[in-house]
Structure prediction request, 124 residues.
Amino acid sequence: MNPPGVSIFIITYLDSEERCRVLETTCRNALQQRYPEFEVVVSDNAGPIPASEALAEIDDTRLKIFRNEENLGMAGNVNRCIERCKYDILKLNCDDDLLHPDFLTISVPWVDDDTLVVTDMEKF
Prediction:
């Protein structure tokens, strides 16, 4: 039996070069998951610097970058990002957080039909 796919979703608003570097580090880290089927979905909330520019050097088909035409606010951006996710199992990852490379491998087996979101609070 194949493990289910997971969408790691990241909402962002980039207004400085520093935030761009942080987002790039976060996305590279998320793409290092040792789980067989996942995507990383980034939703850019119409910040001054497009996320596609900040992430241009990452060449990975699992990374999906979307830009809202206007700022939807945090809740609106979360909702829009979830709509763009391919999989039903979701992992919200803040745009400045790092994941342990086995986070999905360890946590997804605990997901059941009543679970909507995989979440965590961890240091790594």
The radius of gyration is 14 Å. Residues 17-30 form the longest helix (14 residues). The CA atoms of residues 52 and 113 lie 34 Å apart. The chain has a mean pLDDT of 91.
